[in-house]
Amino acid sequence: MTAKPWPFFAWSFVAFVLFYGPLTFSAAYAPGWLLAGTWQLTIVAGVLLAPLFFITVETKNGKQQVRQRIPLPSLMISLVILAGVVLIQIPHAQSVTAKTFAFGTLPVLVAAFA
Q1: Is the per-residue pLDDT at 107 higher than 90?
Q2: Per-residue DSSP letter, 95
Q3: Among residues 98, 93, 76, which one has the least CA distance to residue 33?
Q4: Is the pTM of this model over 0.85?
């Protein structure tokens, strides 16, 4: 950490400011069922982040870095799971105000992608 402090601070910012902060903010303003249901967005977020990562592929010319693609079968399965969670939560959603819904879902969305 002392030899290269900037990567440590950058990933600490992601972990605490972009992940933990919004998650705890959401927990303070929204009911637990809304937070738990919205957290299922991490399944979809993980699949959508695939193009940010590279894999090393062995070719005739040597090793080459290749950007990953979004796995469509995994995305479809993730969307089915997410749709099921939304269907389960529809009866509860009628008792939530727009402010509570926004404070409960938007910070979790930020944390899911972090």
Answers
A1: yes
A2: T
A3: 93
A4: no
